[in-house]
Design goal:
This protein is mainly α and about 400 residues long. The protein folds into 3 domains: about 55 residues; about 190 residues, no CATH class; about 150 residues, no CATH class. The protein is built from 14 helices and no strands.
C-alpha cells in the first residue's frame, strides 16, 4: 500500500515538473530537450507501477491511440513532407501520454482536482512570466518561440477550471477572493496577448458561469458574507483596472483596433482564405488527406488552416476525421449519459456537470480558430473532460445499482 502511494506521489511530481518545465519555463529560461520526455516517461512508469500495470479501458483514449497509428502510417505514405508529419506525430504521442496520465490520476483519486490544479498552475506561471519578462510592443508574449494565441488559450481555459473549482460545496470568502483575483490576473494576460478568440471565449465562460452556476454557488453564504465578498471584489477590480490602464495603454489601444477588425479585418480575411484552401485540399485528397501537419504545403501562405475541423479533414481525410471525432464523441457520450439521472445528483454536482458541458461547447467553438492536436492545452482539456466523464459513468452505475 505504501509503495503504491509513493509511486503515485512520485508520478504526480514528475508530471507536474514536465508540464511546468516543457510548457512554461523552457520557453524563456533554459531547455534540455532530453529532459522533457524523460520526466513524462518517468511519470508514466511510476503511474503504471502504482496501478500494478492494470489496463484501463477507455474508449476515447483507444480512439486517439488508433488515430496516432494512422498519422504515423500516413507520414510515410501520403505525406508531402514525411519528416514534418512524423515529428508532429511524435509531439502528438507526447500529448497522448499526458492524456493517459490524467485518466490514471483521476481514476485513482476519483477526482479531477489534480489535473485542474496542474493546468491552472502552468497558466498562472505563464502569466507571471508575461508580466515580468514580456516582450513585443503590442501583443506581449514571454518568448519569441511561443505564439501569443497559444498563451491566450492556456489562460482562457485556466479561467474555466478556476470557475469550475468555485462550484465546490465548501467555500469561504477568502477562497472566492483568491479565485476571483486569479481570474482577474489571467484576464490581464489575455488582454496582453490581444487574442480576440481568447477574449471572446473567456467572456463567454464567465457570463455562462454567472447565468448557470452563480445563484446556487453562493446560496449557502450568509448575506453579510456576500456583501463583504462583493465589496472586496469591487475594490480588487478597481485596483486592477487602474493599474492595467495606466501600465498597458498601448495594448489597450491595439486591442480596441483589433476588435474593430473582427469581421472585415485583414487577419479575418486571411483566415477565411486559409479555410477555403484547406477545404480544397481535402476535396483533392478526401480519403487519407495529405499527411499530419502537411496542409501548409498546399497553401499560398505556407501555414496551417487555422481551423481545427478543416485541418483535420485536409491532413487526415475522411478516415482520420472519423477516428478522431469518435474519440471526441465518446467524451460527450460519457458526460451526456448523466441526463437520465440528472435530478438524482446534488445541486453542486449538477452545476459541475452543466459547467463542464459549457466548457466542452466553448472548446468546440474555440476550435474553429485553433487546432486541437497541435496545442497541448487543448488536448489537456479533452483529457480532463474525459476523466470527468469517466467519474460520472461510475457515479451513474452506483445510482443505477441503488
Amino acid at each position: 500500500m505504501r509503495t503504491t502511494i509513493k509511486a503515485w506521489k512520485i508520478s504526480k511530481i514528475l508530471f507536474l515538473l514536465y508540464v511546468v518545465y516543457t510548457y512554461v519555463t523552457s520557453y524563456s529560461l533554459f531547455f534540455i530537450k532530453s529532459l522533457s520526455p524523460a520526466l513524462l516517461l518517468g511519470a508514466l512508469l511510476f503511474a503504471l507501477i502504482a496501478t500494478g500495470l492494470r489496463f484501463i479501458k477507455d474508449g476515447s483514449f483507444l480512439f486517439f491511440v488508433v488515430f496516432t497509428a494512422f498519422i504515423v502510417a500516413t507520414a510515410f505514405t501520403v505525406a508531402y513532407d514525411s519528416d514534418k508529419a512524423f515529428s508532429s506525430a511524435k509531439m502528438f504521442i507526447e500529448f497522448l501520454i499526458s492524456y493517459l496520465l490524467i485518466i490514471l490520476y483521476s481514476d485513482a483519486d476519483q477526482s479531477i482536482h489534480f489535473a485542474i490544479n496542474v493546468f491552472v498552475l502552468h497558466g498562472l506561471l505563464a502569466e507571471v512570466l508575461m508580466l515580468f519578462s514580456g516582450m513585443n510592443t503590442f501583443r506581449i508574449s514571454f518568448s519569441e518561440s511561443v505564439n501569443v494565441n497559444t498563451i491566450g488559450t492556456m489562460l482562457t481555459f485556466s479561467i474555466a477550471f478556476i470557475l469550475y473549482e468555485m462550484i465546490a460545496a465548501k467555500k469561504t470568502v477568502l477562497k472566492v477572493v483568491i479565485c476571483v483575483s486569479a481570474i482577474l490576473l489571467l484576464l490581464i494576460g489575455i488582454m496582453l496577448t490581444v487574442s480576440k478568440k481568447s477574449i471572446f471565449a473567456s467572456a463567454a465562460l464567465i457570463l455562462l458561469w454567472i447565468v448557470c452556476c452563480y445563484r446556487t454557488t453562493f446560496i449557502n453564504l450568509k448575506r453579510s458574507y456576500r456583501v463583504l465578498l462583493f465589496a472586496a471584489l469591487i475594490l480588487i477590480g478597481n485596483l486592477v483596472y487602474r493599474w492595467y490602464t495606466s501600465t498597458y495603454a498601448a495594448q489597450i489601444e491595439y486591442m480596441l483596433y483589433r476588435m474593430s477588425q473582427t469581421v472585415e479585418g485583414d487577419s479575418t480575411q486571411r483566415r477565411i482564405f486559409l479555410i477555403k484552401e484547406g477545404v480544397q485540399t481535402f476535396l483533392e485528397h478526401p480519403i487519407l488527406g495529405v499527411g499530419f501537419n502537411n496542409a501548409r504545403y498546399y497553401s499560398e501562405y505556407a501555414t496551417y488552416t487555422h481551423c481545427f475541423y478543416v485541418e483535420l479533414l485536409a491532413c487526415t481525410g475522411i478516415i482520420g476525421t472519423l477516428i478522431f471525432s469518435s474519440g471526441m464523441v465518446s467524451i460527450w457520450a460519457k458526460i451526456g449519459s448523466t441526463f437520465k439521472r440528472f435530478r438524482s445528483f446534488p445541486e453542486v454536482k449538477k452545476n459541475q456537470i452543466v459547467f463542464m458541458i459549457i466548457i466542452y461547447l466553448v472548446l468546440l467553438v474555440y476550435s474553429w480558430t485553433q487546432i486541437i492536436f497541435y496545442i497541448y492545452s487543448l488536448m489537456y482539456m479533452l483529457a480532463t473532460l474525459n476523466a470527468f466523464g469517466n467519474l460520472l459513468k461510475s457515479t451513474n452505475r452506483e445510482l443505477a445499482a441503488n
